[in-house]
Amino acid sequence: MRKSYLLLALVFVGCSSAYEINEVETARILQTLSADDMAGRRVNTPGIEKAAEFIANEFKSIGLETLKSEESYMQEFKVFSKSLGSAKIIINNVDVPPTSYFMKLSTPSITWTDSNIPEIVFISAEEDFRTSIRQGFRGTNDLLVVVSTAHTSMFNMYRSHYSKPNLSYENNKSERPNVVVVLGDDTRFENLFIDAAMDVEEVLLNNVVGVIEGKKSDEIVLFSAHYDHLGVSDAYEGDSIYNGANDDASGVTAVIELARYFKTREAPDRTLIFAAFTGEEVGVFGSKYFSTQVDSDKIMAMLNIEMIGKPSKKGLNSAWMTGWERSDLGEILQNNLSEVDFNFFPDPYPEENLFYRSDNAPLARLGVPAHSITTTQIDIDEDYHQLSDEASTLNITNIANTIKAIAIGAQGIVDGTQTPTRINSDEVN
After folding, report:
1. Are 183 and 272 found together in one domain?
2. Is the domain of 301 the same as that of 403?
3. Pairwise CA distance, residues 363 & 292, whole Å
4. What digits encode the pLDDT tens for the residues 289-328?
5. Fewer CB within 10 Å, N side or C side of the chain?
């Protein structure tokens, strides 16, 4: 560890006025973003607004410019927030209490009776709740899902999440099914009545975006992460805040530190954009909107940073990248680290389909060499999307060294001497 850290430090030796990425600043930013007073940074809440202001103030202190299309660091856009309004469920002539159901609606309202019963799915005590419910949400048919009370704890966690408003760009029906999830062990259906309607509200969301103008305004390198998380749970006593330290305060910390690092050095050849996206956790809304506002042909590379707070399966001083085989961005980063004890390697969890699950995906679909860089062992991480994802669980050295490695690895792309191959958009579904 001592040898690798020193190697990274030696590469960063430069003029005294140049900022050097360090653990003190890394910890300050991470701890601020994941503090309890950010209230889990859920979209359309005071907590995420506070986080956005913090990020904007960091960009201002660094001296970043705004996008030419914006008057501030806030890139504002409109979505529709949909929440459950009126609802009534009767099964076998018994009213089901609100604490025993939740639903995910794609139409303004539903009325299900004995004459139009949807497909019914049972999740028994022996089945895996997460897998079964995920399959239901990804299906094409309307569903009534009945969950064994053996899964009460997990049911309550999901109910807390899905009882909160969800977002969409349009105020109309989506292609997804209506899904109603009920907790109970009775598999008889002698009488069924489900009636529910959504309340719809127009809301404004903000990406936070800063710029370092390069010598070439028509060639852009994008560094990004998402700053939203899951908010506050009402299903637990005591600590109920999803702090989202690793997911993705660690990535936003990297974006801010990279902006400070490059701002204190010689003006880059290419224009650098630093983006903190909103709405990743609820449908990748921020990056989708961003992708419609910037000419994708001008983006030479997108380095999206997700969950770098814990050592990878190869240990400290290593990180993996999604979609490695789709462009040569990973190879460029690794080759530029030939004299540094740090390694980038391909996504070791292809079965998780992570290339499509983060903010790189909307840009990748447009042909941009857009990938996500992470370190966390997602297959065994017990804190992912849990209340336990707090700053105290993270390795600050791992975060700081990963940020340094990204800065070194991307230098040739920033200064215009290296250009990653484009992603074949026809192969990105």
Report:
1. no
2. yes
3. 9
4. 999 999 999 999 999 999 999 999 999 999 999 999 999 9
5. C
CATH of the domain at 386: 3.40.630.10
Q: Are 50 and 57 in contact (CB under 8 A)?
A: no
Secondary element (H or E) of residue 399: helix 396-409
pLDDT band at 139 (very low <50, low <70, confident <90, very high): confident
Only one residue has tokens 């139009």, namely 116
pLDDT at 106: 84
Cα distance between residue 151 and residue 100, in whole Å:
12
Q: Same structural domain for residues 305 and 329?
A: yes
Distance from C-alpha of 394 to C-alpha of 128, rounded to nearest angstrom: 28
pLDDT for res 170: 72
| Contact by Cβ (8 Å): 212, 25 | no
Number of domains in the chain: 2
Query: For residue 157, is it within any domain?
Result: yes
pTM (two decimals): 0.83
Give the dihedral sign, CA 179/180/186/191.
Answer: negative
The whole domain housing 188 covers: 80-202
CA distances from 29 to 26, 251, 323, 384 (A): 6, 11, 28, 20
